[in-house]
User: Fold WAT1-related protein from Cocos nucifera.
Amino acid sequence: MDGKKPYMVLIFIQLMYTGFYVISKAAFDNGLSSYVFIVYRQAAASILLVPLAIIFERRSAPPLSFLLLLKVFMHAMLGITLSSNMYNIGLIYTSATVGSATSNTIPVITFFLALLLRMETMNLKSLSGVAKALGLALCLAGIMTIAFYTGPHLNPLIHYHPLGHKTSSTNYGPAHSKQNWMKGSFIMIAATTTWSFGLVLQGILLNEYPSKLLLTTLQCLFSTVQSFFVAMIFERDISRWKIGLDTELLAILYCGFVVSGVSFYLQAWCINKKGPVFLAMSTPLALIFTIICSSFFLGELIYLGSGLGGVLMVGGLYSVLWGKGKEDVVCESMNEDIKNSMEERGATSPCHPV
Assistant:
């Protein structure tokens, strides 16, 4: 059962992100400022995490140096504040489905960065290495399919959409001109690039400071302050800071408590157990969930290209996970053999899981 926990947590994280894509898109269509949203979201997450960090890690957490605090601050700036603000701007210009789809560039970028930093390996002479390469190719093919092939749309079975809004333009309406659509897609790709950097940096930070809950709390606190100054620069109209008691409040509470709070902690747990690439390769699942949920809740049309792209991405996901699982089994076997044969000399194993 313990071996299945990372996979179960991985699916749960993507379900939480599905809610983020759908609910935040509904709130933006309802008029919520994307800059103000980030401030309130991170503040809500901090309110949740600070008491938990004090209760559970007040005595067990190792001391923090100034240099480590600076690293956490920079990670919050890159992996949360910058990427979240860019992503939300892109989401306004496009749709929840596109937002989830562009997030699937994360595995490719993260894997490339992990290779450069020697946090990940890929031996094309082995079956596991070929499976990883095939998985990345399938993910890229899925992204290209969604981006360049729309195809016919499927008629919705349900015509009542609980979170739909009359000003929503999620079905390629006038508000979503080709220029704005391309602009939004470009901004989203930039956001996922910075998010990928954040995943890799988080893996490095966890090696230096293993207290996941306190680390997540500090990131949320730093990003709250950073996002506040960003919002003060770009959103000076005081009326835009007022929150309606509808989808706007729901989006802030859900994304603050569930996404920024719970999911960030679970991400840190997953990265610590399996590495950043393992987490990043699960993003295709969120696309499948988002296509279904955005159609039901927002009334977004499901196109054939989205379905085909989703199938390719899920195939790529399981191909890479199979390759990583195969390598883990071989690595553990090598460790056991070396330990048994060289125990008297106190030799250390050269094989380290990510």
